[in-house]
Amino acid sequence: MRSEPVLQVHGLVKRYGKKSPRAAVDGLDLVAEAGITAVLGPNGAGKTTTVEICEGYRRPDAGTVRVLGLDPVRQAADLRTRIGVMLQSGGVYSGARAEEMLRHVAGLHAHPLDVPALIDRLGLGGCGRTTYRRLSGGQQQRLALAMAVVGRPELVFLDEPTAGLDPQARRATWDLLRELRADGVSVVLTTHHMDEAEQLADDVAVIDAGKVIAHGSPDELCRGGAENTLRFSGRAGLDLVSLLKALPVGSRADELSPGAYRVTGDIDPHLLATVTSWCAQHGVMPDRISVERHTLEDVFLELTGRELRS
Ligand SMILES: Nc1ncnc2c1ncn2[C@@H]1O[C@H](COP(=O)(O)OP(=O)(O)OP(=O)(O)O)[C@@H](O)[C@H]1O
Question: Which positions, given as ranges, span the membrane (predicted)?
């Protein structure tokens, strides 16, 4: 049986600016099921605004938002106890000591995670007595993550949880998030790391200019839209017109450099068999044949373009 979505956002609009208001979020629809949902998008796409509205930190101008079935504005108090929040800016009192802070947050919840174990998991053992302002950027980030999850919330919002973390801390964060998921905790995270979304997320939503422009599992997104590539080497100057005739309509075949061939299109087992049988018919021994799947980063760039965002 499928449970109720953890997040339901319909027609969400948020405008900033009094004189000439600009829509940062512009009719956004997003439904997140239990599990890990990654929200991707170029700078300024509206990710943080959307997440902060879901957390109850900002009021929408239009649209409906339900988080665990609750309205984050009208039912803020009920929601607060059921969600965990990690803000981009940390949101921690700068004079508080790391462990003290974490214990304080744990004490606000009925069934918190074990604080020493969590400190250990996130490599904060050596800085438990350090004040927040004296922690390094990566340590502050890890503490903010620990504070978001220590209360065993049903749903955690994480805004760029691994931005600025070293590879070890990134992996430790991923492991922790996978464990939380296995424990029934849902996660909505924003990230600019495509590999993070690919590794962790059950579902990915791509936001651009305040709207969701693509939504699906990483696998679905990588399979749809973007073309894959098949490469092989053979003798130089093969008759590509004849190869193209054998291939499905819409495929392309190029000789990139003498003897190095590239076929693009919908690369499936049938097409692979067509290429190898064409090679057999033409006395070509295809060397170093390989299929390159598009990554989430390829798909992201295809969807959102290559121009820098202001
Ligand atoms: N408090 C604010 N006042 C005015 N404009 C704002 C405010 N917060 C965000 N914006 C604008 O709204 C748009 C969306 O910003 P938002 O922070 O939601 O994007 P984002 O997708 O999270 O970006 P990034 O990846 O850079 O964090 C941007 O153009 C930003 O300048």
Answer: none
What is the ipTM for the molecules in this complex? Answer: 0.98
Task: Work out the burial of residue 310: count CB atoms within 10 Å of its CB; fewer than 13 is exposed, 13-18 middle, 19 or more buried.
Answer: exposed
Name the strands in the sheet holding 228-233, side by side, starting at the edge strand that comes first in the sequence: 252-257, 260-265, 228-233, 287-292
Helix (H, G, I), strand (E, B) or coil at 160: coil
How do residues 14-62 score in pLDDT, each as one tens digit? 999 988 889 999 999 999 999 999 999 999 999 999 999 999 999 999 9
- Ligand 1 atom closest to the Cα of residue 310 is 29
Show the tokens assigned to 112: 């918190």
Interval 212-267: pLDDT, tens: 999 999 988 887 655 678 999 999 999 999 999 999 998 999 999 999 999 988 88
Q: How far is the CA of 99 from the centre of ligand 1 (A)?
A: 32
Question: Atom 12, ligand 1: which residue's CA is nearest?
Answer: 24
12 lines ligand 1 (CB under 6 A): no
CA angle, residues 113, 175, 124, in degrees to nearest 5: 60
